[in-house]
């Protein structure tokens, strides 16, 4: 029981730390499901608690965005290790977006999307 409590406490502390970063973070699995996002991400792009477990593609309106997501996830599944970077404009701000493939113990698990407001 103590180990479980400590583990839950650790998770809560890590999430609180991620909320303090000046960067939006979304963790997406290989199927495209949103596993986690931090508070800054919700301020920068469309993220709500009921999106957890939902497909990231459903949050995109442009067909080209969905095609790009599919390509990135396929590339990660087949071994891509390099980040994908792009810029987009939301709410009048230019956002710099990086998708970083992640793995644990050699097993590819998905991508971490980081978003920052690009300064002029």
A few lines on this structure:
This protein is an alpha+beta fold and 120 residues long. It is built from 3 helices and 5 strands; from the N terminus they run αββααβββ. A 5-stranded antiparallel β-sheet has the order 2-1-5-4-3.
Protein traits:
3 helices, 120 residues, five-stranded antiparallel beta sheet, Beta-Lactamase, globular, 33% strand, alpha+beta
Overall description:
The chain is an alpha+beta fold and 120 residues long. It has a single domain, classed as 2-Layer Sandwich (Beta-Lactamase). It is built from three helices and five strands, in the order H-E-E-H-H-E-E-E. Strands 2-1-5-4-3 form a five-stranded antiparallel β-sheet. A hairpin with a 2-residue loop joins strand 3 and strand 4. The longest helix is centred in the first third of the chain and has 19 residues. The radius of gyration is 15 Å and the shape is globular. The N and C termini lie far apart (51 Å). The model has no long low-confidence stretch (mean pLDDT 89).
Number of helices: 3
- What proportion strand? 25-35%
Please write the CATH class name.
Alpha Beta
What CATH calls the topology is Beta-Lactamase
Please give the share of residues in helix: 25-40%
Shape: globular
Topology:
Blueprint: H1 2-20, E1 24-29, E2 34-37, H2 39-44, H3 63-77, E3 84-90, E4 93-104, E5 107-117
Antiparallel strand pairs: 1-2, 1-5, 3-4, 4-5
């Amino acid at each position: 029981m103590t180990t479980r409590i400590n583990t839950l406490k650790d998770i809560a502390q890590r999430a609180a730390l991620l909320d303090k970063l000046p960067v939006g973070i979304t963790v997406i699995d290989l199927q495209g499901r949103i596993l986690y996002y931090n508070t800054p991400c919700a301020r920068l792009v469309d993220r709500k608690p009921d999106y957890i477990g939902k497909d990231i593609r459903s949050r995109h309106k442009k067909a080209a965005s969905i095609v790009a997501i599919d390509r990135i996830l396929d590339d990660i599944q087949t071994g891509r290790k390099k980040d994908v970077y792009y810029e987009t404009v939301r709410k009048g701000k230019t956002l710099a977006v990086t998708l970083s493939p992640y793995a644990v113990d050699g097993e590819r698990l998905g991508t971490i999307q980081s978003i920052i407001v690009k300064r002029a």
